[in-house]
Amino acid sequence: MDDLKYGTRNKRGDWAPNEPIETAPLFAFPPKLLALVKWLPHYFFPWNAIFAASAVVYWAWVIPPVEAMQSLSVGWIAWLYAVNAVCVFFFYGAFELHLYVLKRQENRFKYNGKFPAEQKSKAFWFESQNLDNILRTFLSGVTIWTAVEVAMLWAYANGYAPWLSFADNPWTLALVALVVPVIHEFHFFCMHRLIHTPLLYKWVHSVHHNSVNPSPWSSLSMHPVEHLLYFATAFYHLILPSNPILMLYQLHYAGFGAIPGHVGFDKVEVGEETLVDSHAYAHYLHHKYFEVNYGDALIPLDRWFGTWHDGSKEGEARMQERYRKRKEKLAARKARNTIGEAAE
Length: 344
Ligand SMILES: [Zn+2]
Ligand SMILES: [Zn+2]
Known about the structure:
Protein name: Sterol desaturase family protein
Strand content: under 5%
Shape: globular
Radius of gyration: 22 Å
Organism: Ensifer adhaerens (Sinorhizobium morelense)
Helix content: 55-70%
Number of domains: 2
Distance between the termini: 69 Å
Order of helices and strands: EEHHHHHHHHHEEHHH
Transmembrane segments: 43-64, 76-102, 138-157, 169-190
Bound molecules: zinc ion
Subcellular location: Membrane
EC number: 1.-.-.-
Number of helices: 12
Low-confidence stretches: none
């Protein structure tokens, strides 16, 4: 597969796509009907369909009977942690093995020419990005994911969350299922923007940003406070007319869905001919430049707030201009303070 048909590689070996990132036409105004129809299959396949299917599988085979979940007990909570951990291990591990250990597609479509294992850094536990990321994923990531899941299931079992049945409310639930990714995008953008404020960035979010060159294990490598904020997306189902399966879909969208954004490759080669888009470039640019693309553009929030970078030269220029203006503002403020101090 020739990745140079789709992009270019610089001297450092970093690959970048030729085309600017296409954003979802969901909120385009005036509505772009044709673009919407063309985009819709990508909305479902393959990623969203995988996370929705995994929620159904969980409900059928993993989640304990409702009566058992009416009270909290170590048995079923430990069982849920174990299943989540095993699923994360195999799902994340499959990408890691395919792309980073066996390097089956070498550096084809890889944004950053280097592999994290080649670079030691003091920013990480044991100076190893992989070890640090894996430990954080299982110590606090899967733990907090499971805690939120347990809290929600307990709430459903005790009648504290609205639980509609698919038989009685098929259309309402279909609509909620459809907007699960939109809820995630809204929630993620808000909490992500919040933890980019100076104090929270320093104490919380910098942990995730240590991985400037993200790989699959970086997906859930976060500070516990960020894990809690991130998985809190399930709590929307405490007020939405919903169902435990959709709540699980929301959680899986966050937990398993973090992978595509951190895979580090623009396309994953499946067999000889098939390429699966990771849609990771927007979030890769976030890891590279920090203050662009707080969301993934399902809702064009970054466009509305002026922080969108689509990977093009224009996008780059817009970002540089924004940084320059901010620098000027800071310098002016500093000068004002100095004059003020001198006058005192
Ligand atoms: Zn990230
Ligand atoms: Zn960030």
